[in-house]
Design goal:
By secondary structure, the chain is α/β, with parallel strands linked by helices. The protein is built from five helices and seven strands; from the N terminus they run E-E-E-H-E-E-H-E-H-H-E-H.
Length: 120
């Protein structure tokens, strides 16, 4: 099986791993699975992962993508890490509110605000 193309862009900002999505629409089940695996590798590579997921440019998100985010959150917490979400489109944020996921995740307006919210 050929290697799959990455669906995310990763960069380090101090001790925080920042993830951005390459796709505007995160709807395809296969792509969501690849994204989940890539983020899982990032989580496993740190004893106490500090992860910022930016939704900049993302216009649509499927329920499967939300499920993957919940798994990511659980894995980060299991490793005594911190997860922040940022730059969520207002229409997507409405879904977080309706599903009450805005209570589960630490959501910030911008990546800079999210970066400042990490505790040492």
């Amino acid at each position: 099986m050929p290697p799959t193309e990455s669906r995310i862009r990763v960069k380090r900002v101090d001790s925080v791993t920042q993830v951005e999505f390459l796709d505007r629409n995160i709807l395809d089940e296969a792509n969501i699975q690849v994204i989940g695996q890539e983020i899982e590798q990032l989580i496993q590579s740190e004893p106490n992962p500090r992860l910022l997921i930016s939704f900049s440019g993302v216009e649509h998100l499927s329920s499967a993508a939300l499920g993957t985010l919940i798994q990511v959150n659980n894995h980060v917490r299991n490793r005594n890490g911190q997860l922040r979400l940022a730059n969520i489109d207002p229409q997507i944020y409405e879904v977080f509110v309706i599903t009450r996921l805005n209570k589960l995740f630490s959501i910030h307006g911008t990546a800079d605000e999210a970066l400042k919210s990490f505790t040492k």
